[in-house]
Each structure stands twice: as C-alpha cells, then as structure tokens.
Write a structure and sequence with these properties.
By secondary structure, this protein is an alpha/beta fold. It is built from nine helices and ten strands. The protein has helices at 15-28, 42-55, 69-80, 89-94, 105-113, 132-139, 158-163, 194-201, 217-231; strands at 32-36, 64-67, 99-101, 118-122, 146-149, 168-171, 174-177, 181-184, 210-211, 235-236. A six-stranded parallel sheet has the order 3-2-4-1-5-8, sandwiched between helices. The longest helix has 15 residues, at 217-231.
Amino acid sequence: MESTYGDRVHSDENIKEELLRIINRTIERKGILMIPSFAVERAQELIYLLYLLREEGRLPNIPIYLDSPMGINSTAVYDKYPTWQNLPKVHFNEMYDDIHFITNYETSRAVVHDKKPKIVLAGSGMLEGGRILHYLNNHIENPDNTILFCGFQAAGTRGRAILHGETEIKFFGEYRKVKCHIESISSMSAHGDQSEMLEWMKNFKTSPKVFLNHGEPHQADAFRVKIKSELNWEVVVPQMLECFHL
C-alpha cells in the first residue's frame, strides 16, 4: 500500500474558492499564474474548476492556456469516452471552449515571452522537465507572478525545493532568483491522506499483512505506527534489496 501522505490529513479547504483567491490576487498584481500540472486528470480537473468559475461569472476575463502536448492528447481521450465519466453532458461539451490549446513550439514560445496576465497550465507537475520550465525561466523572478502547486512534490525535485523555500533554482544551466509568489493546494492530490487510507483499510474482513511503499521514510514510518495503533495489523516498510516469501 502507498504511504505518500501517511503522516498527514488533507485540509478541508474549498478547492474552487482557494483557486479563485489565488487567481484574483495574481491578476490584481497584473501577474501570470503558472500552474505545473500533471497531464492526466490534474490538468482536466483544473480546467473543469476554471470552467465552473467562469460559468458563475467570477473568473477574471484573462486568457487560459494548456501548454502540454501530453495534456492535450490526454484531454482528447477524455473527449472520446464521455460515458465513462460522471460530468453533466453540458459541462463536458463546454468546459474546453475558453481554453487555448497550444499545439506547436512557435505558439508556445510566443506565449512564454508574453508578459501580459494569463493562466498557464503546463507540464511537468514537479518541474523536472516540460514546457513549464520555459515559463519559470522567464517569469520566476517577477514578484507579480505566481506559481501554484496542485500535487505532491517529491524529494529532490525543483518543485519540492521551491515549495520549501529555495531562493535560487537552476534552469537551462543558469540560476534564477525565486521572487514570484508560491502557492499550494495540496488537497487536489490524487493520493489519499492518512484518514482516507485508514477508512479504506477498515473494509477488510481479515487482517492482511501490509507492505508500505511509495512514500518517503518518515511518511511510511508514521503510517506504519498509525496502522499498528488503530488496527493492530502487521505492517512492514520494506528496505532496499529486502526479500519476502509470500
């Protein structure tokens, strides 16, 4: 079982309202909102939230760009299988109307160098590659702009470094000062938190032996202790090269 958020519980913040707050504050500064986004599910979820805010008449009238080849291709898959989703059909047909899909490098380059207020969704989600790096390389030193993280940032990634207060980040061989605003909505993560995972585990009729993975050491160990305390199950955090006979 995973343990990505084994040591914490997601906040109960209203994601849509928090997103609107961050958008409004950025636009008040006449800045650019840059959202590093995972291409599958996260990009589409953000587009849907932006669509709802626009339908409610609360979203500022600024352009929104999806600059992610994989994100655009993934969106096409969502379009192909509408009956596999639970969105109302009217929402599904309209939610992409106001999104500018960037499909070629020339357009991407032009948007990157444009300093006017906008919202940009681009990969990769942890800033380890992708077109988001070009936006940050050009706009991270402007205090009017904002980076919004909407997913888990693994140790050793640029995303984790920025989120934890790093003041300089290297892009394309050069260091840039991190002067823009940093925001995070952790409750958008697709990973369950400690409470959600425990509730799922309580459905087992008999106690299984649990192996915890996909979590940093302190998160896995915290979840191990919590499972032992709450459920009294046998829990193991496997170490590198350790073997188990099942």
